[in-house]
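[Q] Does anyone have a clean structure-token version of this?
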Amino acid sequence: MNPSSDKEQPLVQHLIELRTRLLHIIYFLLAVFACLFPFATDIYAIVSAPLQAVLPAGTHMIATDVISPFLTPLKLTFYLSLFIAVPFILYQIWAFIAPGLYKHEKQLAAPLLLSSVLLFFTGMAFAYFLVLPMLFNFTMGIELQGVSTMTDITKYLDLVLHMFFAFGFAFEIPVATVLLIHAGVVTPEGLAEKRRYIVVGCFFVGMLLTPPDVFSQTMLAIPMWMLFEAGLFFGRMVKKRSEEREQANENNDPSN
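[A] Here you go.
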């Protein structure tokens, strides 16, 4: 019997399981997309509502490309399907890596995965219900002589998706902070000392991720700062529990 085959077999099994879970993700994503496809135009109407509500009387959105009325709602429906599939995707990732984790790592990873999903969707909701209406109210109030406001549907979708991703990932700051503290890359005390630089960094990131206006940048930077403070708070709790567990293990070690 070839001894190397025993070593290769677990790797083959892991690759087969990875392939199976990837196929499950693809099938689930396609199923969600198939269910949403008949409602693609309705979905676009809902997403474009913040702009439609503030467009000047007699104006409307336009399509500058012949196939934009078909492709743009289709693109939006795909992204929506992907967002809806995120919990299932994370579950498949969790089911793949969970057997290799220690018990205390599972206890930390599960809440972080759930929190990351909730925070991402919260960031998207924050952008849709608060930031976009206020942004469009501000921009539509700017009138230029001889200029009619008629937004291209593709450009609008690109802006909305950009804002969704920007706010969705920005709202992941607490999870990233807790992970960095748990991994020992940073300490709560070190982060607290650098708070002023982090606040400046939040406004800098807001400038990069949002449209070039102070309003949008501030609407992203302030929540990022608040979320950093939340991550710092929970990071202290995680570090304290980790230290308590290590102390308990040392006390239970018979060699001591």
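[Q] Thanks! Anything notable?
[A] Confidence is low (pLDDT under 50) at residues 1-7.
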